[in-house]
Amino acid sequence: MSEVVIQEVLETYPEAKRDSLIPILQNVQKKEGFISRNAVVAIARHLDIPASKIYGVATFYNQFRFQPYGRYLIQICRGTACHVKGSLAILDTLRHSLKIEPGQTTRDGLFSLEVVACLGACGLAPLVSINGEFHGSVTSEIVTELIENLRTEAQEV
């Protein structure tokens, strides 16, 4: 995120105090896609609090992230219905195939992996969402094929 965009966000909070921290973080993340190191420093200066306090708050809430998502955001549902229908095996397949853990992005920037508590489509369990598109009744084989297709698609572009 450019310094200009960070400044624009901070200007919407001219007399901000510590109680504005979460809305500022949310606004920065909305515009940038994540909380950058530059953003943390600028927010700390603006609110006149240490950057460590900003990190402390941002790491407490799982809504904030410090790295941008990859081109494909893969969310695997671990809700009760998905768990019962085998989502742990699918998660293991994704970990192995992508060589990342939940919350991480592949080195090539193609894939990010997130575990979510529930995607709200229990009838489709087990469920994986890729960039908001639901894939229901997935198996390890299906998710492997989806990953292979996305890799191929990315190479064609």
Describe the structure.
It is a single chain. With about 160 residues, the chain is of the alpha+beta class. The chain has two domains: about 5-60, Arc Repressor Mutant, subunit A; about 70-155, Glutaredoxin (3-Layer(aba) Sandwich). It has helices at about 5-10, 20-30, 35-45, 50-60, 80-85, 85-100, 140-155; strands at about 70-75, 110-115, 130, 135. Strand 3 and strand 4 (about 135) form a beta hairpin. The two termini are about 25 Å apart. The mean pLDDT is about 95.
Radius of gyration: 18 Å
Give the CATH architecture of the largest domain. 3-Layer(aba) Sandwich
Instruction: Look at the helices and sheets and give the structural class.
Output: alpha+beta
Distance from first to last alpha carbon: 25 Å
**Envelope shape:** elongated
What name is given to the CATH topology of the largest domain? Glutaredoxin
Give the uncertain stretches in residue-range form.
Answer: none
Written as H for each helix and E for each strand, in order along the chain, the element string is HHHHEHHEEEH
Q: Assign the CATH superfamily of the largest domain.
A: Glutaredoxin
- SS summary, helix count: 7
Helix share of residues?
40-55%
Largest sheet: 4 strands, mixed
How much is the average pLDDT? 94
Number of strands: 4
Number of domains: 2
- Percentage of β-strand residues: 5-15%
Q: Strand order within the widest sheet?
A: 2-1-3-4
Kindly provide the name of the CATH class of the largest domain: Alpha Beta
